[in-house]
Each structure stands twice: as C-alpha cells, then as structure tokens.
Amino acid sequence: MGKETRLDVVVADLPDGVDPGELAQKDPERLALAVKNAQSFLGFRERALAAGDMRTVEGRAKPPNTHSISLPSTPTRSCVTNT
Fold first, then answer.
1. Cβ-count burial of 14 within 10 angstroms (0-12 exposed, 13-18 middle, 19+ buried)?
2. What radius of gyration, in Å, describes the C-alpha atoms of the chain?
3. Cys-Cys with 12: which of 36, 38, 40, 61 at CB 3.0–4.6 Å?
4. Facing residues of 50 across strands?
C-alpha cells in the first residue's frame, strides 16, 4: 500500500503583488509573521463567500473579490511544514 500523507492547507496574507520568495529575501520577518498568522483554507473560504452578494444568482455564482491563491507546482521546504 502507498504511504499516507496529511496536508493542511492554510492561507497567508501577503502584500499585493509581492512574490513570497522576494518577501523572504527583502523582509523575512514579515513573511514569518504572515505564515505564523495564516488561517485555515476553510476559514478563508467561509469569510470570502460571506463577503459575496448572495441575494442574486449572479452574486452566488461569481466569486467575491479576494486575493488570488497560487501554489508552486512543486512544494518547497520553505512553504511546506509537517504537523
């Protein structure tokens, strides 16, 4: 049988337009604080959906304005931790 792996996905609040690698070089303390204060993906999703307009079909279908989420194609040690 294959090895089981647990993955906890969290969302860190980073400055708009700043790459996490760039932030790690320019302001590592800010990146560390963002990662420390990261929220669960489900909590983020719940707040993002609550911010949308649920009164209309269009509002329910359209995702609210939130920060985009981009994940590296191959996780790196700096963005993945085991719990």
1. middle
2. 16
3. 38
4. none
